[in-house]
Amino acid sequence: MFCDMESLLACVGSQCIFCTGKELANISHLSKKHLKDAVYFNINNEEKFVVACFCKDSKWTSRSHYHCPHCKFRAFTRSAVFKKHLKSKHGDEDFEWEPPSEAEMKVIQARRERQDKISKLMGDYLLKGYKMLGDCCDVCGTILLQDRQQKKYCVSCQELDSDIDKDNPALNAQAALSQVRERQLAAQSPAPSQTPELNGGPSNGQPSVSVPQPRPEHCEGAAAGGRALLPPPAVPPPPAAPSTTALAPTRPAVCPQNPALRPVLQEAEEAVLTKLRWATTQLQGAASLEASIQLCSLITSCANSLRSLKELSQ
Length: 314
Hints:
Number of domains: 2
Organism: Acanthochromis polyacanthus
Order of helices and strands: HHEEEEHEHEEEHHHHH
Helix content: 40-55%
InterPro entries: SSSCA1 (IPR009563), UPF0148_domain (IPR051888)
Shape: globular
Strand order of the largest sheet: 2-1-5
Protein name: Zinc ribbon domain containing 2
Number of strands: 8
Region (Disordered): 179-254
Distance between the termini: 43 Å
């Protein structure tokens, strides 16, 4: 059971956990396939929804089914029967799902990209010897790190947040709405007149000397529509074919030749494994959605770091 689309997007990964085949669980797959067939209802005036899955907790393992959030191990294969059960047995009112607006999708996508940046930075700092603490930042809720001088460090506040957060659609919904309004105004603006007013009406077979202005619906905004009045730049000549001697060969995999480097790699691998076990334990008891998303991203970063360390040790 999910409470909003952002909680469903926490399931983004290399393989969809709701499908039987090896489907890539990207944003497009989750929003177009599973949100379309989800069952939406209200619990205590809070909007919730359940997506269909192919798990083994039901007798219909070969068919998609819905799990009732109230009844333990109760599943339904038809959405209409599931809605009737929720309303008659538990008093949950169903409602029609409305797809997220363009502004909401921009906010969700920007938050997802910001979370990926935080996870990547945290993985890099763990490889540098930083420790991950069990505390979160009081400002943004990001998991804190600690350097060798025992100083706490927040990756989000120190490296991502800035004075232009008011224009970031991930942190300000008004900024995302402004971007959508700009595109709507650009698309709805009428096409400029093809004949100048100095002609006094339609031309009598004489070509007009005015340059027609293109419609700005394909531009990013009014500024881009103004730039369309400039003549197109001259096409540069094709560049000369580079010499075959200038092509650098593909860099081979770096193999540590120094035996003293192997203990360092083993120590780094053990440190990453320790953080991976800790994140797995914390994820099992995490109650906050934001903390769960960060822990999942941290587990992914640790797995990528372990893969890189193994490639270096080979």
